[in-house]
């Protein structure tokens, strides 16, 4: 008998297959596309008599405006976040790091009684037991038993706001898994790990891809004796392959793919090898009938949305769209982003606006913010909530930290490392695109005039010309406003060195909306404070 483990991960409340800003544009992703594909793939597998387990691998309740709508505007409807996965037929759910963005109580209200939730390492600090969910579950079919263990990256406390995870302890998933796999492998025919985390090393060469902070421990989990299959996520990568005899998947982001892992329960073979990028995974599909185990990804953009769920949630979509299309403020100038990549090199009025909001809200000397991805649309003159959440989907708050001038320069040097110079042309350093795109870790600053000389070595590129017209002082302490994610040192470890002066409680999206209401017809001060020298 074959075991098939089907998974989605990091769907981030992208359910409909349409662009959030331009609703008339079809998007190549979405949970309702995945639901159609899962239904057919599962049906075919069951026709063959296969043992099928479907996994929703975390980061399910936050990310698109739908997540914000359910959490903030219509919490009475939030149970749909439990109901839809139940109807799709997921056997297992795992907690992602973004599950905690709306706080522990919200999460408990949604999932405390969900029997599919597996959580082996996020513990109540008092009882030392899973605060919700169960550590593992054993499934049985025709005398064959399969155990699935649910794990979450232990790095959540390094990024999440303390109030959202109060009373929780994030145990080491590798340590927990070792104990459970040893225990369960004596009782079952196969042990599957569903881990909301990724890989810090290349799966084929073991070369280091990122600092081994404990955020992505998939490589260590893969080496635990007795693991039959490993489902991963968190990094939004496309991974499908068999490594050391263990099939591995990571199905991207926004339900753009489904992971499909196959293990022969009667006689496990050597498996089909595949590299950890999707272009080479195409070959895996052709080799699907080869010796098992095997792994592949199924892209969902070729599948229609499930008519059932589109119909079932039609009223919710209408209500949400009405809320999203409400005007939250008016600008005196259009601040749309025609070329996000170019805006990172030259600055842009949209960035100036966000930084001015941060400065106004905190009274800081300096502010820094990022253009999170290349899909950010910016603002039209009439700013809707749809635009607001389409540009800023995170429930981040502001933090004011104290940095010396020397630390400010050090942080700017980190930002200068975002760029490379190739044959006289500006490009993005590969460390920001592989193993995953991390444009959100590059900041543009306000409150100072500065330059990056890309002809110089890393660490020697920054020149600060002045701060608010005054000489830049390496010894002076400056107040710097950033979001709570950046304040932890995420993307720029220098920020974690600063003393926290003030933690804001109001989400930045609310601060932006309030600012626009108070300054109708606002035109951001053109900064022009940043230059690349090549």
TrEMBL record:
Keywords: Hydrolase, Nucleotide-binding, Signal. Gene3D superfamilies: 3.60.21.10, 5'-Nucleotidase, C-terminal domain (3.90.780.10). SUPFAM superfamilies: 5'-nucleotidase (syn. UDP-sugar hydrolase), C-terminal domain, Metallo-dependent phosphatases. Signal peptide: none annotated. Residues 339-495 form the 5'-Nucleotidase C-terminal domain. InterPro entries: 5'-Nucleotdase_C, 5'-Nucleotdase_C_sf, 5'-Nucleotdase_CS, 5_nucleotidase/apyrase, Calcineurin-like_PHP, Metallo-depent_PP-like. Residues 5-237 form the Calcineurin-like phosphoesterase domain. Pfam families: 5_nucleotid_C, Metallophos. PANTHER family: 2',3'-CYCLIC-NUCLEOTIDE 2'-PHOSPHODIESTERASE_3'-NUCLEOTIDASE, 5'-NUCLEOTIDASE-RELATED. Belongs to the 5'-nucleotidase family. This is Bifunctional metallophosphatase/5'-nucleotidase.
């Amino acid at each position: 008998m074959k075991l098939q483990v089907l998974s989605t991960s990091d769907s981030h409340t992208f359910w409909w297959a349409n662009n959030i800003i331009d609703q008339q544009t079809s998007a190549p992703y979405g949970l309702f596309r995945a639901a159609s594909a899962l239904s057919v793939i599962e049906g075919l597998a069951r026709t063959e008599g296969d043992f099928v387990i479907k996994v929703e691998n975390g980061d399910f309740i936050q990310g698109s405006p739908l997540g914000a709508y359910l959490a903030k505007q219509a919490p009475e409807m939030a149970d749909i976040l439990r109901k839809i996965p139940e109807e799709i037929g997921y056997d297992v759910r795992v907690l992602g790091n973004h599950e905690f963005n709306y706080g522990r109580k919200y999460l408990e209200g949604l999932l405390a009684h969900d029997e599919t939730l597996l959580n082996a390492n996020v513990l109540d600090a008092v009882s030392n037991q899973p605060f919700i969910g169960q550590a593992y579950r054993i499934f049985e079919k025709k005398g064959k038993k399969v155990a699935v263990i649910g794990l979450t990256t232990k790095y959540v406390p390094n990024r999440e706001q303390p109030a959202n995870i109060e009373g929780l302890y994030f145990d080491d998933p590798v340590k927990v898994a070792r104990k459970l796999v040893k225990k369960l492998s004596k009782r079952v025919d196969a042990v599957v790990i569903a881990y909301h985390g990724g890989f810090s090393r290349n799966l084929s060469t073991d070369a280091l891809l990122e600092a081994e902070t404990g955020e992505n421990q998939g490589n260590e989990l893969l080496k635990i004796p007795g693991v039959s299959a490993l489902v991963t996520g968190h990094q939004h990568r496309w991974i499908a392959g068999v490594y050391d005899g263990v099939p591995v998947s990571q199905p991207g982001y926004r339900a753009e793919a489904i992971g499909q892992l196959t293990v022969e329960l009667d006689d496990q073979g050597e498996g089909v090898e595949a590299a950890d990028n999707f272009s080479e995974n195409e070959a895996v599909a052709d080799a699907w009938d080869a010796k098992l185990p095997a792994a592949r990804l199924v892209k969902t953009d070729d599948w229609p949305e499930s008519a059932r769920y589109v119909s079932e949630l039609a009223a919710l979509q209408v209500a949400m769209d009405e809320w999203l299309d409400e005007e939250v403020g008016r600008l005196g100038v259009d601040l749309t982003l025609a070329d996000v990549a170019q805006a990172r090199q030259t600055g842009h009025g949209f960035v100036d606006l966000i930084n001015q909001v941060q400065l106004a809200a905190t009274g800081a000397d300096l502010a820094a913010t990022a253009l999170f991805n290349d899909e950010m649309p910016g603002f039209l003159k009439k700013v809707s909530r749809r635009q607001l959440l389409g540009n800023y989907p995170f429930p981040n708050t502001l933090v004011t930290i104290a940095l010396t001038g020397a630390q400010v320069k050090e942080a700017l040097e980190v930002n200068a490392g975002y760029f490379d110079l190739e044959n006289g042309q500006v490009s993005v350093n590969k460390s920001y695109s592989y193993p995953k795109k991390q444009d959100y870790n590059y900041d543009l600053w306000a409150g100072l005039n500065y330059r990056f000389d890309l002809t110089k070595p890393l660490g020697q590129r920054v020149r600060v010309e002045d701060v608010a017209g005054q000489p830049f002082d390496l010894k002076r302490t400056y107040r710097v406003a950033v979001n709570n994610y950046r304040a932890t040192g995420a993307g720029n470890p220098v920020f974690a060195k600063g003393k926290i002066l003030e933690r804001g409680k109001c989400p930045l999206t609310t601060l932006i909306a309030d600012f626009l209401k108070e300054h109708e017809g606002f035109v951001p001060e053109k900064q022009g404070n940043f230059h690349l020298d090549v």
